[in-house]
Amino acid sequence: MLDQQPRLSRRGLIVGLAALTASCAASTPKPAPVAQSFTPVVPPPLPPLVAPPALVPALGPALDPQGLIRRPLLYAAMDALKRHRGKVAHEDRVYIVDFQAHSSKPRLFRLDLTTGEVKACRTAHGRGSDPAHTGFAQRFSNVPDSNASSVGAYLTVGQSWGSKHGPNVLLDGLDPTNSEVRDRAIIVHAADYCEPAYLASQGKLGRSFGCFALSQADLNALRPDMDGGRLLFAGV
């Protein structure tokens, strides 16, 4: 007679395996999740811009040490000086206009290429560049009677005097984007809508017909410096 061994039922097998699994799980705790930390990558600051020696011999200090001029605009102006250096008689200073800035902000910069120092004042843009008079120039044109500002490189031709605006500085356009400025009579002149009293009451300057209009005090300070043969660069 054979010995009879107890038969394990299917139900018992499942229950037993479940118990064994629970026991293993209890004896081997899961490791706690590791918190991932992310270190933001901060790009290194741009080095001070120094004019290439081919442009300005023996330049010591960096240009615009205070960082008043947006670097892309400053680089564009220096590139324009390089492109047009055969037409620019004097490379001791350049004038840069930031048409991305609001008209209430100083946005015409006098950059001394010998010392690197910058002086800033306010200038108006054209009616055609800002039809709704928001204070921001939004469009630019080289077309006569557009009443808009033009971007690009200009050459200061010299001091002049007109019956309408009085003392002014004549300009020539050096780029295809502003080649018509002489025929359009685009100049640097003073206007009452650029005076501090107008700015205080309106919160922005008035608009010209495309000229670089300034307050009388700013024109008096800049006009002798702008005399013939220097670069003025307007950009966004």
Explain what this protein looks like in three dimensions.
This protein is of the alpha+beta class and 236 residues long. The chain has a domain at 71-235: L,D-transpeptidase catalytic domain-like. Helices cover 19% and strands 19% of the residues.
Helix share bin: 10-25%
**What's the β-strand tally?**
8
- Please tell me what the overall shape is: globular
Number of helices: 4
Succession of helices and strands? HHEEEEEEHEHE
Mean pLDDT: 82
Key features of this structure:
8 strands; 236 residues; L,D-transpeptidase catalytic domain-like; alpha+beta; eight-stranded mixed beta sheet
Quickly describe the structure:
The chain has an 8-stranded mixed sheet. The chain has 4 helices and 8 strands. 19% of the residues lie in helices and 19% in strands.
What is the fold's blueprint, element by element?
Elements: H1 10-27, H2 71-83, E1 93-98, E2 108-112, E3 118-121, E4 152-162, E5 166-173, E6 187-190, H3 196-202, E7 212-214, H4 216-222, E8 231-235
Parallel strand pairs: 1-8, 6-7
Antiparallel strand pairs: 1-2, 2-3, 4-5, 4-8, 5-6
